[in-house]
Write a structure and sequence with these properties.
Blueprint lengths: L1 E4 L5 E8 L3 E7 L2 E6 L9 E7 L3 E2 L3 H8 L11 E11 L4 E10 L2 E16 L2 E12 L14 E15 L6
Antiparallel strand pairs: 1-4, 1-11, 2-3, 2-11, 3-6, 4-5, 5-7, 7-8, 8-9, 9-10, 10-11
Amino acid sequence: MTWQLDDARTEVSFSVEHLMVATVHGRFTEFEADIVLDPDQPERSHVTATIATASLRTDNAERDRDLLSPGFLNADAYPEIRFVSSDVTRLDEQTFLVRGDLTMHGITRGILGRGRFELLEAAPRRVRFILAAEVDRADFDLTFGIRGVLVGKTVTITVNAEVSEEPSAPA
């Protein structure tokens, strides 16, 4: 069954170490997803998500410009970040793993995320889920500052979302 992403209750964020003593947090404000979800059998679920690269925000205008520039994400050349799931594995009643391909900066790599979900409402069904994945930014040729340890290699991407069943189309 196809589910609708609740934009007002969804956040796509990231965090990365800076200078080995601080953590920079950011988010993307424009995203969409095609979600096929079976809460009873999550392994039958599938998602394709697209993020507008230029919607990156860290609450620091200068840093945002740097991150969107050709030296980092190069948002003009690579306007989208895309994730397509390949399989979901249920670990227990609320925990799952999701594998898929992440395309960022023109490079596609397989990633593994771990998440939790919970049923919020039964009719119509609403589900909240949190999914986190760690990626090595060097895998996507985002290598600025790695040698000098200015910016950490590992970026944690977190999706905190609510989705609901789409109403059936009128007959």
